[in-house]
Amino acid sequence: MTTTATPPPRTARATATPPEQRKRGQRGGPAYIFLTPWILGVVLLTLAPMAVSLYLSFTDYNLFDPPKWVGLRNYSDMFTADPRYWRSVGTTLLYVVVAVPLKLAIALGVALLLSNTRKAKGFYRSAFYAPSLLGASMAVALVWRALYNDGGTVDELLSSIGIHTGGWVSDPHLAVFVVALLSAWQFGAPMVIFLAGLQQIPADLYEAAALDGAGRWRRFVSVTLPMLSPVVFFNLVLETIQSFQVFTPAFAISGGNGGPADSTEFYTLYLYERGFTASHMGYASAMAWVLLLAIGAVTLVLFRTSRSWVFYANEGA
Is 147 helix (H, G, I), strand (E, B) or coil? Predict the structure, then answer.
């Protein structure tokens, strides 16, 4: 007697059938409709202006006459025949090197103090974050200029203890530091990020370090900084990118001319002068693209070097 094997039951297909795929496509239609404003904004307000700017960087354009194609002349003049361009690069690099570490150090220090505060924690956090809400506005920059000007509040306070500077704004060696201090004063955003990172550090690590005899400084160096390194890296990248694009404080403090003696002639301020004051929009477009590539290169370097000092808790998992 022979028996026939019963065929195994058919399993459901892993992939969707054509009707199901059509249904999914129909369900995705409303999503694209709601995304239409965003897509139009990206194309019309970002991608299209970038394409036009790239084209203008190879032209001689004065905002009034049609653009005239000149090839790489704007770039060659920028690197070989414009000493003010290189001064603006040096001023911007000095500002980045001073302002970014100073701002992050103040933000981390205040975050450490607030993380140990038990009373009125919400009030103190709001108070220290308030300057960042004002942003780099023209009004704040003008007030800052008045504080550090000749005869201003800072000058009067320093003169009362025997330090006569004659005003930081009018001193070519100190003017750039006025802008850097203004940036450091607005430390609220990185402070909040540092606070969030501090709250994620396990208390067991501090207890183990304390049992081993580690003091406060040792716990900060061996526990806090390594565990907080991803947050430090995040703030470092954001603040570096923003610092390369500083404009409003430099414009207000220098009076719009990069003075005194081009000491506050930041890259973006010089770009503005060449584009809208001198009407060399092609040259200004070339400067904008060089700035974009420079920021991208610096960001890439930061990501490459982060492998040696950024610690992630789940790396060994």
Answer: helix
Give the phi and the psi of residue 113 in degrees, each rounded to 5: -65, -45
Structure tokens at 259: 């003075």
Contact 144, 178 (CB under 8 A): yes
Dihedral sign of CA atoms 303, 307, 308, 311 in order: positive
Distances (CA, A) of 6 to 2, 12, 17, 213, 272: 13, 18, 26, 73, 81
Show the tokens assigned to 69.
């194609």
pLDDT tens digits for 248-263?
888 888 888 888 888 8
CB of 69 closer than 8 Å to CB of 59: yes
pLDDT digits (tens, 9 = 90+) for 176-192: 999 999 888 889 889 99
**Is the separation of the CB atoms in 249 and 136 below 8 Å?**
yes
Longest dimension (CA), the chain: 117
Q: Express each pLDDT in 134-159 by its tens digit.
A: 766 788 888 888 888 887 888 888 88
Domains along the chain?
A: 95-261 (1.10.3720.10)
- Tokens read off for 207: 């207890």
